[in-house]
Amino acid sequence: MNAQILMDTASALVADDKGLLAMDESNSTCNQRFAKLGIPQTEKARRAWRELIVTTPGLGESISGAILYDETIRQQDKNGTPFVKVIIDAGIIPGIKVDTGAKDMAGHPGEKITEGLDGLRDRLAEYSQMGARFAKWRAVIAVGGGIPSRGCIEANAQALARYAALCQEAGLVPIVEPEVLMAGKHTLARCCEVTEECLRTVFNQLCTQRVLLDGMILKPNMVLPGLTCPRQEAVIDVANATVKCLLRAVPAAVPGIAFLSGGQSAELASARLNAMNVRFKSRLPWALAFSFARAIQQPALEIWRGEEANVPAAQHALLHRARCNRAARRGEYTAAMERRSS
Prior knowledge:
The chain is 48% helix and 14% strand. The chain is of the alpha/beta class and 342 residues long. It has a single domain (3-341), classed as TIM Barrel (Alpha-Beta Barrel). The strands form two sheets. Strands 8-7-6-3-2-1-10-9 form an eight-stranded parallel beta sheet. Strands 4-5 form a two-stranded antiparallel sheet. A hairpin with a 7-residue loop joins strand 4 and strand 5. The relative contact order is 0.14.
């Protein structure tokens, strides 16, 4: 493990008010999104969609890193250039999703455990040789009656820590993603309570596994009320609750926090990130960035719909969302930006 390289890469991922583009959807998830829009669920269509993303002119001005899926990191553009090279040439750092998905947890109804540790050392070595410089592992924590259980939180935290240690051994920066899901009717306060418990447990395990905190990025959920909670707090209330929770649980050594969007609308995710940076940016120990998937991609996907003629308009929409989120990192995002893009 070269600690300096890890620290330099982690810092670069949250530098210059940029953020991450999560384009690591599994084939099945990508196909589900295609099906809703009448796009063929084929490898050819997935490759075309990913080429649209990575060849978007100017994307590197707002995006520091792109998280890829196993199929994607092996694909090429229509000229035969590997996507990894296209991404690097755009000034973007390539990364890779390495977990194999969340599965039902034995003895814990309604809860999931993320798998993929078996064979991970060898897979990380291969991805590193292919050009990846960071990796991602997602754990999912559901909130409901009697859950999350302590067993679920601890098992997922340990898996995240073991993954992170293996990443650093291989020279890859780990993106550590403990996601408290939005699904449910839980309140903002309940989400804050669960998120803090999860983060404290994760960092305890990271330290136990001797993970270099300066050489990792945290990818948490924002603190939000459940989607079906009757009370949906204002943007500033979400910002306040999120940052206060993070200050209680995240060590100052971590260089950056890159939020997942988790099903939020594109505009709301940008507005909430913006509110955090407006109020807190100058007095936080870590950068507050973004690692969005649908909140950057979805508007472009709805424009593209698998049609080559729609590529320029879709790329314009993708670039717009990336720029909105860079503005949110600066505390300069406004609703007027949305009107100007239409």
